[in-house]
Amino acid sequence: MTTITQQASSTFIKSKKHSRLSAPSLSAPALAVLATLAMPLAYAEDAPALADEASLPKVVINAGADRSVQGPIRASSDKFTAPLLDTPKSITVVTSETISQTGAVSLTDALRTVPGITIGAAEGGNPVGDNLFIRGYNAQTDTYVDGIRDSGSQSREIFAIEQIEVVKGPNSALGGRSSAGGGINIVTKTAKEYDFNNATVGIGTDQYRRVTGDLNRVLGNNAAFRLNVMAHENNIAGRNVVGGDRWGIAPSITFGLNGPTRATLSYYHMESSEIPDTGIPFNNPFTTGPNLARNGGGTPYTVDREAFYGLVNRDFRDTETDVATVDLRHEFSPSLTLRNVTRYGKSGQDYVWTQPDSSIGNAALYGTVWRRANTRIVDTETVANSTSLGGTWNTAGIKHSFNVGVEFSREQTDRGTYVFSPGTNNPLTGNSTCPTSGAPTLYNCTTLVNPNPYDPWVTTRSKSPTLTSVDTTTRAVYGFDTIEFSPQWQLNLGARWDDFRTELNTPAVGATAATRALVDTSFDTYQAGLVYKPKANGSIYLSWATSATPPGNDGGDGLDALTVAIQNLQPQVSRNIELGTKWEVLPGGRLSLSAAVFKSDMDNARVTAPDGTTQNVGRKELKGVELGFSGRVTPAWTVFGGYTYLDGVIADNGFVNTGSTAAPVWTPSPFNGNAFPTTPKHSASLWTTYALNKAFTIGGGANFADRQFANINNTKYAPAYTRFDAMASYTYSPNVSFQLNIQNLTDKLYFDRVSSPHYAGVGAGRSASLMANLKF
């Protein structure tokens, strides 16, 4: 049991478990990271030059060619059996150079450069963390690390990331259970075949401080060791009291660098502590009744940008992630390779987070907001193993590039909550109605305008005796083959069979009975694509793919929670057809262009049937256009960007009760034909840099997102916005360079996180950071 008492106001935020980093000192783990960075490197051999000093960082999108190496670009996954140029899918690859140039320090930061991806807001059933939507579908559970599903809600860092691969469209043939929108594969940094020592030290506005280190050592003739470390702290620009600190370490060692057998052992650890953001409530809570005239236009309330509805004395979020991986690979010959990957992972988070709740009309009626306490104590433990055989072979003059394999995994999620005494309701009303605010309400109600995050909220917090446990096991067999009939024609085929079993157990507590729900199902998913190459530097493709989303897809840690009501339902199946083209143009193929039109359908979505039960009888439809470009327009000028058009429609949302609980009357949903929530119709991004000379480079970017609805009713939405960023770098010497980033250059007030019908997340205000990049 923990007693929470008032803390004095401070420019530094204090979490409930870990002290924030103060200006002159760091926490013990962070000091250990900094000590690692300070290891004597004076006798290290100079790292070989990776590129000419005048060259600019590489950016690859939708099969863009890597101009620093020979041969076609391939994705990191062996399941892609053709170069990206000839892969009949929309795939965006964001390199570490792009991440560094844009000043990104998290996965969501890095993905803002990819149009068609939006960020969802957390809520009671939806945990705080990377809540991503791809092509209108929630892809929260569709994140992979080096091809293995990364389970558990997290906020992922970038210090140990080599590149990020975004696969658009149904993804189940590649990764198993998934949404219809696509998936994200994070490629981690592993040991290289040469020595180098890199470090960055950064300071900035809003108490931004960041230190990273990247050290690589060759061990003898056939092994190498790499170590990545990070310590970071910052507040969020324009958001009162929001911020946190984190630190991480990621060592890896590879044996057999130059032989047919290679083994890579890696480990990743990260911890974070923060006060999470609360956002600003929407201003139209009424749908019927006498207060309908009080509704606003559907946008968040117009209040001070820094309005924070949480409580410093109550709110906190602590996370911890550990991942250990053994990756074994053996080449029987240049045309046949066997690979086995085993991973153990554990991720957990612990938080009390205030949601500004005005769902019953407090803000419109009384100018108040109820401080709803969302809490979660969750640990997800995963063991996974994947074995694959890949290579090439020829028969009857036809070339095959193939990959076949089997996968096994088990995920165990234990989730609990906190309870408070005397409680978080308004004691004057006994519920969440807030006609007044302040001390008489025990500060559980606050004002819409100028809420005080340092209100002396005092109560006792303890863990709830109710604990939910979800155990998920999967078995899968898959196969992929790219069949090359001639230099002009290729056929890409893929299929996967999954056996999926997930079980939910909630023990009995007092008068509450125990709950058990079980899903035991299997499903097949496919992909096929015909590729025509009119020239060696281009391709035109027509593809088809499916995805399957079974009940309990989230493994107990997300929106798709398993319940008794849905345990007997079939997986939701989506189909996508896509026509696209990819080209590498200009001398050396230095500029990549891509375009695609697509249409996806889900005709067995889970909705309420005419009898009031939940059944697979709904339908969703999505069509869109995607354009991409990246590379060098000239040797000094790079570009990276794209545009996405998405028209998502809830074609059949089932039925709603227009009668009473005792005498229900089920009528077709009034939301039929409404737009997908969290899906801007138009989105675009551009990042560009220009080398003025060998020393100076300037760059800038723009991100546009159209209006995004927060609910299926289409009554609440975040307005469209355009955000601008800028960058300038200066190379002082081969071993020292500096980079200045200004985020949100115009200090635009915008909302970049929706999906909750109660509030919208506020985008960070203008901030600046200066990084020193060092090579030893």
From TrEMBL:
User: Pfam families this protein is in?
Assistant: Plug (PF07715), TonB_dep_Rec_b-barrel (PF00593)
- Which residues are in the TonB-dependent receptor-like beta-barrel domain? 281-745
| Major place of residence | membrane
Keywords, ordered alphabetically: Cell outer membrane, Ion transport, Iron, Iron transport, Membrane, Receptor, Signal, TonB box, Transmembrane, Transmembrane beta strand, Transport
Of the GO CC terms on this record, one is:
cell outer membrane
**Domain of life of the organism encoding this protein:** Bacteria
> Where does it localize?
Cell outer membrane
Q: Name one GO molecular function term.
A: signaling receptor activity
What membrane topology term does the record carry? Answer: Multi-pass membrane protein
Q: What is the lineage of its organism?
A: Bacteria, Pseudomonadati, Pseudomonadota, Betaproteobacteria, Burkholderiales
Signal peptide range equals 1-44
UniProt domain TonB-dependent receptor plug: residue ranges? 84-182
A biological-process GO annotation: siderophore transport
Report what the protein is called. Answer: TonB-dependent siderophore receptor
Q: Does the keyword Ion transport apply?
A: yes
Family in the record: Belongs to the TonB-dependent receptor family.
